[in-house]
C-alpha cells in the first residue's frame, strides 16, 4: 500500500528558516506595481558540493498531490580549488553565468552568500540552457537576456534550419492563460511564434494545448491551477481553435491535473524532439514595442534541451522530468 506524501505548510517552513537564521529576508523586491515572484528553485549546499533544483510546483501540499509537475535536478557540482578564476567551472551553455546574473538581479545583500557559493563550484557538467525573466522594462540588448527573447537567441545561436524541420509542429502546453490580444497575429503567432521558430518557419499556426475538458482527481482543488478569466476569454474567442485535450495515458497522468508547462518542437510522429523546454511560465502578453520589452513576473525559470540532429523523446524526458 502506498503511503500518502505530505508537505508542511509554507508558513511552517518559513518559521523554521527564521528560527535557525533570524533576520533572513524571504521576500523578493518587486520593481513594478504589477510584478510577482514566480520562481520555484532550490540551491542545496552539501559538504560534497552544490545542487540546483528547478521545479514547476509551489511549496504547498496541493501542488504535490495528484498534479502533474516537472523537476530538473542538476548534477552534484564539486567545489572548485581555492584560487580559481571567476570564469572557472563554466558550462558550454553559460549556465553558471546566467544563474549568477539572475541571483544578482534581486539586488539583495542576503543573496550575496549564495552568489559566492555558486561562484565557488564547478558547474561545467551542465548541459541545459537557463532562461530566466525579471520584472521591468528591458531596452536594447537587454531584451535578449531575459524571457522569450532569450529563448529566441539561444535557438538562433545553437540551431540552424534543416530540410524537413519546417514542417515540425510547435507545441505549447500550459495551465494558465492571460490576455493575448484581439487576434492571433497580435502576439501569439507573431512575436512569440518567431521566438520558437528558429528551425524554420511553418505555415500552420503554433499549436497551443490548454485543458478544455478535464476530469481530474481533485477537481475542486485542481481547478484553481487552470485560471482563465471569463472576461478575458470573451475578448479572445479566436483562441478556442488552438485548444486541445490534455492526455497523458502513457505515463498514467491523464487525470493528474497538469500544473507543468512545456514547450517543444517535435517531429510529426512525436518520435524526436528538436528542443524541449520545461517551465513554470504561463502564456500572456504584456506591453512591448520595438525598443522596450516589459516583464511583470520576477522570474520564470525555463530549461531548454536542444538537438541539431533530432533526439529521441525518451532520452530527453528521462533526463529532464521527474514525475
UniProtKB/TrEMBL annotation:
GO cellular component labels: nucleus
Location of the active site: 38 (nucleophile), 259 (proton donor/acceptor)
A GO biological-process term: DNA repair
GO MF annotation list: 3'-tyrosyl-DNA phosphodiesterase activity; double-stranded DNA binding; exonuclease activity; single-stranded DNA binding
InterPro entries in the record: Tdp1
Keywords from the UniProt entry: DNA damage, DNA repair, Exonuclease, Hydrolase, Nuclease, Nucleus
Localization per record: Nucleus
Binding site for substrate: 40, 261
Family: Belongs to the tyrosyl-DNA phosphodiesterase family.
Protein name (Swiss-Prot/TrEMBL): Tyrosyl-DNA phosphodiesterase 1
Species of provenance: Callorhinchus milii
Source lineage: Eukaryota, Metazoa, Chordata, Craniata, Vertebrata
Amino acid at each position: 500500500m502506498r503511503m500518502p506524501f505530505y508537505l508542511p505548510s509554507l508558513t511552517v517552513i518559513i518559521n523554521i528558516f527564521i528560527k535557525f537564521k533570524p533576520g533572513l529576508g524571504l521576500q523578493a523586491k518587486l520593481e513594478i506595481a504589477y510584478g510577482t515572484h514566480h520562481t520555484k528553485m532550490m540551491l542545496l549546499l552539501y559538504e560534497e558540493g552544490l545542487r540546483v533544483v528547478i521545479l514547476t510546483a509551489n511549496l504547498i501540499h496541493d501542488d504535490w498531490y495528484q498534479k502533474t509537475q516537472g523537476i530538473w535536478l542538476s548534477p552534484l557540482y564539486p567545489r572548485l580549488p581555492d584560487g580559481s578564476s571567476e570564469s572557472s567551472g563554466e558550462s558550454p551553455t553559460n549556465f553558471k553565468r546566467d544563474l549568477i546574473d539572475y541571483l544578482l538581479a534581486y539586488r539583495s545583500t542576503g543573496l550575496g552568500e549564495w552568489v559566492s557559493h555558486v561562484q565557488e563550484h564547478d558547474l561545467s557538467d551542465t548541459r541545459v540552457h537557463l532562461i530566466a525573466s525579471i520584472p521591468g522594462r528591458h531596452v536594447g540588448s537587454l531584451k535578449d537576456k531575459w524571457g522569450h527573447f532569450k529563448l529566441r537567441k539561444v535557438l538562433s545561436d545553437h540551431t540552424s534550419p534543416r530540410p524537413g524541420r519546417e514542417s515540425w509542429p510547435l507545441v505549447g502546453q500550459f495551465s494558465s492563460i492571460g490576455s493575448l490580444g484581439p487576434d492571433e497575429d497580435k502576439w501569439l503567432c507573431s512575436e512569440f511564434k518567431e521566438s520558437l521558430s528558429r528551425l524554420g518557419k511553418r505555415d500552420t499556426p503554433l499549436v497551443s494545448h490548454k485543458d478544455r475538458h478535464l476530469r481530474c482527481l481533485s477537481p475542486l482543488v485542481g481547478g484553481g491551477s487552470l485560471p482563465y478569466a471569463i472576461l478575458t476569454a470573451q475578448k479572445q474567442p479566436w483562441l478556442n481553435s488552438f485548444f486541445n485535450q490534455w492526455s497523458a495515458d502513457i505515463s498514467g497522468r491523464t487525470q493528474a491535473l497538469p500544473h507543468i508547462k512545456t514547450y517543444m518542437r517535435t517531429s510529426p510522429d512525436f518520435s524526436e524532439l528538436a528542443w524541449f523546454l520545461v517551465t513554470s511560465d504561463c502564456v500572456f502578453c504584456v506591453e512591448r514595442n520595438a525598443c522596450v520589452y516589459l516583464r511583470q513576473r520576477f522570474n520564470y525559470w525555463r530549461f531548454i534541451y536542444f538537438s541539431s540532429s533530432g533526439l529521441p523523446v525518451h532520452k530527453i524526458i528521462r533526463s529532464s522530468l521527474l514525475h
